[in-house]
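Below: protein 1.
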Amino acid sequence: MDHTLLGFVILYLVVSIGIGLFAATKVRNASDYITAGRTLPMFIVVAMVFATWFGAETVLGIPATFLDENLGGTISDPFGASLALILFGLFFARPLYRMKLLTLGDFFRERYNRPVEIVISGAIALSYLGWVSAQVVALGLVFNVLSDGVITQPQGILIGATVVLLYTLFGGMWSVALTTLVQMTVIVLGLLWIAKLVGDMPEVNGVAPVVEHAYAAGKFEFWPPMEWAAVVTFVAGLLTMGLGSIPQQDVFQRANAGRNETVAVWGTVIGGTLYFLFAAVPLYLTYSATLVDPATTTRLLAEDAQLVLPTFVKTHLPLYAQIVFYGALLSVIMSTASGTLLAPSVTISENIIKEFMPHHRMSQKKLLWITRSVVVGFTALVIVYSLWSLQNETSIHTMVANAYKVTLACAFVPLVAGLYWRRANNLGAGLAIAFGLVAWIGMEFIAPDAALPPQFAGFLASLAGMLAGGLARPSQRTPG
C-alpha cells in the first residue's frame, strides 16, 4: 500500500470537511440551508449542475457499460442524463424559479393539494436511495483499491458515507456550492491532464488511434436493431433518465439557488451540455487502458469492469498522476453524493414531516434542525442499501438507472401538466400517480423483462390518468 497516495487522499477528505464547516457559517435559516439564499452566480450554478450527474457512474459505471455493451448501452447516461438537464433548463427552470419555492414538492402543494405533495415528495425522496448509494458504493471501491484491499469495500462505504455526511450536514446547500466549485476544478483540470499523460503513452499515441481502434472493434454501435421490442427498450432507456430525472429535488435545487432567472435557466443548460461533452474523457481513458494492458483489462472485465480505470491508473501512471486522478475521482463522487444526500432530506423534512406538524409551531430554526436530523437518518438508510446492493452485486450504472423509474411513473406527468396544461387538477394528479404506480409496480412483478419496460408502462398510464381527470372536471388555478 502506498502511504503517500493514501495520505494525500486523507488530506483531501479533511479539506472537504473543512470547506463544509466553513459553509455552515453562512447558514442562518432553513432557506440558506436548502437554497443558499438564492444568491449564487452563474459559474457556481454551472459547476453544481455539471456535478449533479458527473459522479461515480460517469467515471466508473459508464465506461464499464461501454466496454460491455458498446455505445448504445450508455443511452440512459450520459445521453438521457444530459437531455434531462437541458430540458429542465429550457422548459422548467424559469416558471419554477418565479414561484419562489423552497423545494420541488412545494410546487405540488401549490398547484394541487397536500396529498399529492406528500405522495410525490415521498416518491422523489425514495428515488434518491439508489442514486446516493451508487456514490457511496463507489467510495467504498476507491478506498478498497487505494489501500490494496486493507480497507474492505464495506468498510470503505462506511468511511465514505461518514465524510459526505459531515460536510453536508452543517452547511447544506452552501456546503454543496463551495465544495463543488473546488471539486469541479479538480475534476476538469485533473482528468484533462491525466488524458494527456495517457495520450503520450506509445501504445495510445493520442486521441485518434483510440477512437479508430474502438470504432474498428464495434464499440460505437449505437442504434438498436430495427425491431419493435429493441427500439422500444432503447427509447425507454433514454426517457427513463431523460424525463424521470426532471422532477428531482437536486436538479431543481441547483437551478433555484441561482441569483436570478437567467442564471437558473442558462446555468442548467450550460452545465448539462458540459456534462455530456466531458463524459467522453473517462470513456477515452478506460478504452486506452485496454490498449496499454489488454491482459489485465480482460481479467478485470470478467471480474468487475468498474475496476478497469482505477486499476490502470494505479499500475501504469506515476505517483503524482495517481494523486491527481484519485483526487478527481473522489471529487466527482463526493460532489454528487453531497447534493443527492441533501435533496431527499430537505424533501422529507419540508414536504412530509412538516405537513404533519402544527404550522404555527414550525419556526425556521426548528425546520433547520429537523432537516439536519433527516440528513443523518437518510445517510444510515443509504449505508444499509449500499451494503445490500454490494452483496447482490448490483452495478453502479444499474443502481443509477433504476433510481428514476419511480419519478417517471408518477411525478413527471403531474409536473408538466401542472405547468403547461390549464385543465390539470387534483383528480388528474391523483389518477396520474395511482395509475402510474400501479402499472409500473404491477409490470415489475408480472413482466419485468417485457418489450415495454415497466417504468415506461407506468409513464403511459400516468399520462392517461392525468388526461382522464383533467377532462372529467374543470381546471384549477395555474401556478405563479
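Below: protein 2.
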Amino acid sequence: MNINWHDLLTALALVLIIEGLLPFTLPEKVKEVYRSLQQASNSNLRVMGLIGMIVGLVLLYIV
C-alpha cells in the first residue's frame, strides 16, 4: 500500500482550517456550545459523532 503523503497532509490541513473557523469568528458562541455539550449524555454525543462520520463517508464516496 502506497500512501500519498501530500494528499493526506492536505486533507489534515483542510480539517484544521475548517475546525478553526468558528472559534476564530465566534468565540463566545463556541464557548456556549461547549457548555451545552458538557451537559449532553454520552449516548447523544455518540449519535452525533456517528451521524458526522456517516455524512463524511457519504461525501467522500460522492467526491
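Helices lie at 5-25, 27-39, 42-62.
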